[in-house]
## 1
Amino acid sequence: MAKCRGCGPGYKSPLDAMKGPREEIVYVPCIYRNTNIEKPDYLATVDVDPKSANYCKVIHRLPMPNLKDELHHSGWNSCSSCFGDPSKTRNRLILPSLISSRIYVVDVGTDPRAPRLHKTVEPSELFWKCGLANPHTSHCLGSGQIMISTMGDPYGNGNGGFVLLDGETFEVIGNWELPGEAAPFGYDFWYQPRHNVMISTEWGAPKVLANGFNPNDVKAGHYGQSIHVWDWTTHKRLQSLDLGVAGAIPLEVRFLHNPDAAEGFVGCALNGTVFRFYKTQKGDWATEKVIGVPSKKVEGWILPEMPSLITDILISLDDRFLYFSNWLHGDIRQYDITDTRNPRLVGQVFLGGSILNDGLVKVTEDQELDGQPSPCIIKGKRVPGSPQMLQLSLDGKRLYSTTSLYSAWDKQFYPDLIKEGSVMTQIDVDTVKGGLRVNPDFLVDFGREPDGPALAHEVRYPGGDCTSDIWI
């Protein structure tokens, strides 16, 4: 972390963060829901220090006190948005549960290598105080409060509202959005106070996606295709920007890290697109599609065409590179976004997926590849499933990937993940010219966990990272 007198957690700027120390441990939520293993989800602490005797090993496991929570994404009690407040410390990890609607607060300050449970916020608190359920993304605010987006109401319908927690007691304060202002669906969000704006995205109604994906639910309007613009000061929803069929299921949203920037990107899963959103000269917000990954015509799959399914995106701290994962096709891509309107593909690696050359799916028409990719084998282990969640080192030189998307969809699309568990891999990044290369010496195999194969999801660094820290 930054060393200076009178400063709070994190770093003064994104470029300062790039000079931070190399990551030595990471936190990874591991899920047992839908695996037929009756054990609670847990938070794994993984050693990623190449100088350590425990390199690539899980060194601690913190089981949750309940079953079938579906841990998913995590956030902090305070981050770089509180850098100017010396009273704040990044010592609690906020762990929302996507299905049970519990929120766990984990003490990572007392012993970072052995986190312990600090508090549990029960679902009834969200239900009764906010009318919300299915919490997803957690961000700390410069005010010291914690804000968590939600996907549903207590009945499983879509509801894009936001829960506020007290940053000291972790009590539920209430809704962030004004009465009647919630979006039809919710998922991710990112705020940019210098432009008095927040952008939120949409997945779908929890009651239809809880147990798997049915394309008919998209046609029935149970999945979203809009992003929403909010006034950061008044909490009013100002615009809902319909991305159309091309932008169906907009998931992860990322502003550029520069707090003066008035633009960013959103990855849209269903049809493999990335949209740029930006502030216009009039002062409102607009979008344009800047990347499209062509679907592949296939035989031996559930549909005659297979979309790439972009499921995670992130931006390097210097705002130079955009990365995303194609969970069905099986690749990770790196784009140079120096010209944000014209991203340029500069790196690509395949780590699995549904179109491998020894699988059951035959690609009959491909606009990008000359042949189907080979399986990825690291340290003698064939990577099961496909790259999904991404996290980039502060200096931008190491990209981590895990292979679980969401347990019900894992079970549907990659049943081998349920049997074998997921893995965590590392990709070396060329930060000069661009380029990606799989590190052949790095593999964390969650198939060998003591209680059986687990599904590993998001990667989080104790000192903050490019998907959790926001500068104001």
## 2
Amino acid sequence: MTDLAPPPSAGCRNAPVLKERGQREVFCGLTGIVWLHRKMQDAFFLVVGSRTCAHLLQSAAGVMIFAEPRFGTAILEETDLAGLADAHEELDREVARLLSRRPDIRQLFLVGSCPSEVIKLDLARAAERLTEIHAPRVRVLNFSGSGIETTFTQGEDACLASMVPVLPETEARELLVAGALPDVVEDQMLELLEALGIGPVRTLPARCADLDPSVGPNTVFALTQPFLGDTHAALIRRGARHIEAPMPFGDEGTTAWLAAIAREFGVSQERFEAVISAPRARARKAIAQASEPLKGKSVFFMPDSQLEVPLARFLTRECGMDAVEVGSPFIHDAIVGPDLDLLPAGPQISEGQDVERQLDRVRKARPDLTVCGLGLANPLEAEGLTTKWAIELVFTPVHFYEQAGDLASLFARPLNRKARLHLAKNTLGGLGADSPQPVS
């Protein structure tokens, strides 16, 4: 279908995986609400939890919790947690009050911040009951964002998986693209698919409930995010078939992703090349310019977002970096297998985390760049290691051709900053006694 470079003679798909089950250092799945509530314009996310969870969302979103239009917190007090109050009645009352004030809400997600046995609420049954009360105007669903049950990006996975069972049935042959993308990036993707003659194309999540996709035995789906394991399983249970492909990061990933879909829909080689040639050339040029500081540098991925495997493929294959270790909270072979096939052999592949052991490996390897969570970045920087916040890779548009140069730049920035600081230090250190001194 296209002139992609051949995969390495030995990729990492069959490489031994170091599985660690120790102390983790990751955000919980509640954080996914911060981008999902912007994507789904008629949805509301009601977090059922403690004041601690309200403070987490307030800090993560950078706003007061009730100032945002489409999410809030139903705070459980001590009497609720002790089972001394009827939490179901209180929840029903809060939901009724919310919906009376917000007639624009069409989808309401009850998001558990703790397991049911902790908050003394069965949110699945509550969602069913509230749907009966408020249907057909509002559909009520539930999922868990608990840090005990989910890691950072699994909040989105749990949300989308909760939607799949209630999607309408269809016999039509359609392409479903799953994974929340910024609207501008989603529009770019849809334009490329339309130019290839592929359609109809549905997205999950849709921007509003009226645009929710249907699913059936003739549905084929592609993923834009590698952390959608539960959504993948839910779609297969509905009879849909997965189109396996590398994730659409960079020139190579985007081209391979589009090529897999084009093969499925019988797009000719000539049409494929005509559609992708211009945006692909722009992506290659942008990557070449942005990745210059990355060439020959080593990178160590600590597990955080489940983006680690496709990003490691991008950095090694397209930016000239060497991966020391690629750690991910979970490695789902059916989803990231195509990226593992392309990832050159050599790095340690690890799943899960024992944070102290992994920090020991980071300190021993002393990579040029360590991609990690916020809680580990500052301590490692204090030890002289250069870090990249993994969270920024989730909140920044990085998919498809037009964002390929920006993706490379995100990794180049910490190295550029370190180089500038080193130069400034040497320049200031070279000032002699007779040199002009700064005025205090």
## 3
Amino acid sequence: MFDVAPSVKSWEDVPGPRPLPLLGNTWRFTPYIGGYSVEHIDKVCLALREEFGNCVKMTGLLGRPDMLFVFDASEVERVFRGEDAAPHRPSMPSLNYYKHTLRKDFFGAEENCAGVIAVHGDQWSAFRTKVSRVALSAGAAAQYTVPVAEVADAFIQRIRSIRNEDSETPADFLNEVHKWSLESLSLIALDTRLNCFNASEDSESMRLIDAVQTFFLSVGELELRAPWWRLYPTKMFRQYVAALDTILSVTLSHVEKALKEIKANGSSKSLLQDLVTAAGPRVAAVAALDLFLVGIDTTSNAVASILYQLALRPQVQERMYEEISKVLQDRPMKPGDVNQMPYLKACVKEVMRMYPVVVGNGRQLTKDTVVCGYNIPKGTQVIFQHYVMGNSDDYFTNASEFRPERWMNRSPAQKHHAFASLPFGYGKRMCLGRRFAELEIHTVICKMVQAFKMEYHHEPMDYHIHPMYTPNGPIRLKLMDR
């Protein structure tokens, strides 16, 4: 008797919450009525998997394509490995509108120059090819080790000066971490120090700081709520556009400065100058803009989450401190030091597994595709839910336990699925700034542990989507000088 492969089931057969006539499934996200919450999409997805299994469809969402949530890491691997040369990632509709409609004169003035965020197909592929030769080169991030460490030192001094009488960080500590992230990224993307920790009110630095903050406050609302901005320019949407215009204009001014320095010196010495030399000033400006839009909020929320989790675990801190002390021996950091700190890197990976700042990775299908045994139609947004998979015993042994060692001493006896936790994505659309983000995160965590013993003495914090997955509430850490 031959085994007969089960036939592929149709899209209609995929389980999921049933949409109502006219209201679809949008009503489920209405406060006090629906039971689903955007802020708690982590818990929503846990409940969806529990009720419907490893493949769940969500249809009838106002202004959005149908969605498919996938909670099977092996299926994630199969889809990723089968991708074509230009995967389509679900874009931010508001940013897509800004680049391709509102400011198409700028982003469309030069061929293949709209960037990698909210761009797809041949345009995306051509732009990424131009930028990746520079951004993903082996020494691209390493050359910033010393200046990034200097920014981290400035952050330490800032924290020392704003602690209260109980040695605790202020309620707006996350805002200080945002400033650190902006300072670090401006150093890398714009080749300049903004002096975010003491910028004057009328400075270009403060204009950029305010614009970046406005962008991040707006983008979550515009992307996660009903898209009323598509019908008329809401106040928030107008603020969002003004913020993007400011970020773009400041970026362009620094690209012009980089051009002048290249002409004066005859050579490039930074990422920005390398991009100008390799791909031209407009590509360099758009690449820097994209780094700002996706590199500040993600990195700062990751650092805030890591510091909070370390503050809950003094023994983990002490082991990390011993490792750091052994490597640095009271000297300044230099390129390659973090590679001698496997426990520090493992702790960062473990926090990102349990509390990923981006809870899911996505694709918008460019062709009909079989996923989990179902024929999923072209145009569907497929969300690979890494928060759920990363916290599942199906893919990690004792997934609910904080065990950095799982990243250091892998063994056949320990479950560890490579595609269950992907904080920087995978494949062709993996984060272009990954090397820089890791350098920033590892460096500031190293400096914080080296400088302070961290404790947390308040109510445990829940995590919310804001729009990053981050501790909800003031992060008041007790920081005692070592």
## 4
Amino acid sequence: MLEAYAKKILQARVYDAAIETPLSAAPFLSRRLNNQVWIKREDLQPVYSFKLRGAYNRMAQLTPDQRAVGVITASAGNHAQGVSLAAQRMGVHAVIVMPRITPEIKVQSARARGAEVILHGDAFSEALARARELMEEQGYSWIPPFDDPDIIAGQGTIAMELLRQHPEPIEAIFVPVGGGGLAAGVVAYVKYLRPDIRVYGVEPEDAACLKLALETGERRTLPQVGLFAEGVAVAQIGEAPFEILREYIDGVVTVTTDEMCAAVKDIFEDTRAVSETSGALSLAGLKKYVQQQGVEGKSLICINSGANINFDRLQHIAERTELGEQREAILAVTIPEQPGSFKRFCQVIGERMVTEFNYRYADGERAHIFVGLRVRPGGSDRIAVIEQLRAADYPVEDLTDNELAKLHIRHLGGGRTPWTANEQLYRFEFPERPGALMNFLDHMPEGWNISLFHYRNHGAAYGRVLIGMQVTEDQAGLEHHLDTIGYRYWRETDNPAYRLFMT
């Protein structure tokens, strides 16, 4: 199988449209990680993504009759641009179905190249189903986003370039994984020619379909998929990619939203490129691998798979970057409610930089403060400052990994009211688009008094809402209704951040 794919990769037709992208050194990261870090710059492709390679190679195989009818595909954005550019070059009509959550920059880019774009559904799976329906109705030729040998071969040309550009020893290559086409192409070529090189897939923790498939030994569908890195928001690994990956990939690294945000910053500082979150995914995995394995003095390569990001999302990414780099600790500290207590607290933390401080009067004896402190990466410094505060008799709750605290409480600033009897707190996520908040409210149950509401739009692919409701009876009935809405939610009534700052 590897030999067959290696031949297909060598024969792939990609360079009529794609370019050979550079392998850029990352000197800042290399020094920080004590390894030689290299970034394969697929963000420099004409469509700012590697997806052009597979799309063009697949369309180059079409017969004249198939080209005359036209092509169709489903895409979360980057594959759409690859298909639209390939169709433009070949004079083929292209129809592309995209989820409504697709960043506007990707939608406009596909339309600018002459493609007919249809927005349908809130997830890739819904767009895919609609595209399949249109294919049957209109007779279009299908250009799959990842689950096809020609797509895999086109993406595999990245590995062909990479090994030629870096003939010296390589410890590991890190590849972002959505449907698996890119990972399969890289794995097939590298393991055929250089089996000593390790290849790792990298997935978001909330969209790890390859990890699930490897653990269970079969392709399974994730019940829910996180949308923060929409370019890899795929619920099931592709069938053709999995045939390769199940045998030859060395493992999967999963990363958090904050770790992806930190990787976006890392790429910018070393290359001045602004990557999309799925584009920085592989670097986040590389950094985690170094941290977990303790490797030093090795050559490590990651693939910046794309740079198609809406500008307004950068605000949220920048906000989460410090946490992703473990440079900020978010703490809840209880101090005496008396004159001079805040000054004493500042004396205990010394010259540490305070990144955030929220406080509101609660009672005459104690004050709960929400504080952000600058710490050194790695986690040990955060533990040290917590121990330092506890040694000074301050009760401390570490909220650094608490999503409720990071997404909502820090913006609410300790608002309290005596009228919160029987209040139950729920945190929701829903696909973000115009009118999404109103649609969410339309689905909320009637007859329950809303005692708290916090919503913040920061340009992400999904909106986040915090709701407090006064539930006097039938909580099970309420949660049954919430289950039918179909949005992800968490009951947060027992969350320490809520207990300390909102009740």
